[in-house]
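Hi R.,

Here's the chain you asked about this morning:
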Amino acid sequence: MRSVLRIVNRLLIGFFGLVLLALGGSVLAIGLGVRPPAWWIHDGRHDVLLSNAERTRWRDEGWWWPAVIAALAVLLLLALWWLVANVRRRRLADVLVDTGDGEGALLRGRALENVLAAEAARLGGVDQAHVHLTGRRGLPEARVRLLLEPHVDPGHALHLLTSEALAHARDSAGLAALPAEVRLRGVKHRAERVT
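And the predicted structure, written out as tokens:
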């Protein structure tokens, strides 16, 4: 899905870039005095983009407004699909565990997420932990969010997470590597008085 989305993004950006370049370049060229070909939509420097007749040509036809609304609805649905597909990060459903027999086994992604989050939450100085697995079955990636207690050294918490929780998850699933993106945040607390 990610590779398809990457291809769609590149095609859309390329297409809209070419259209904007062609239209902008032609308007600039005509504005500078270049004579356009006979089939071009503009006749010269003083021609308007859309004349009054062109704007109101189909307005009285019965099919015009339903066609315009249908086309805009389709464009809106495609734009919403594109936006959701780009923003949403898919959860990894299964992780392929190497069992040594050449077949392998599938471990539910949610189960690994829950175990990793529980172990990360038990680390010293961690108030809450959330884990989200992405990537492919054989090459999962972890996105970890830790909520740290007050006065905890973030470097120490990160070291504990990588050397204990992530290492245990990687070893137990038989993975060669488990790359992780970790976001740390501190618990909001009241200011303490110094006496």
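The radius of gyration is 28 Å.

Let me know if you need anything else.
M.
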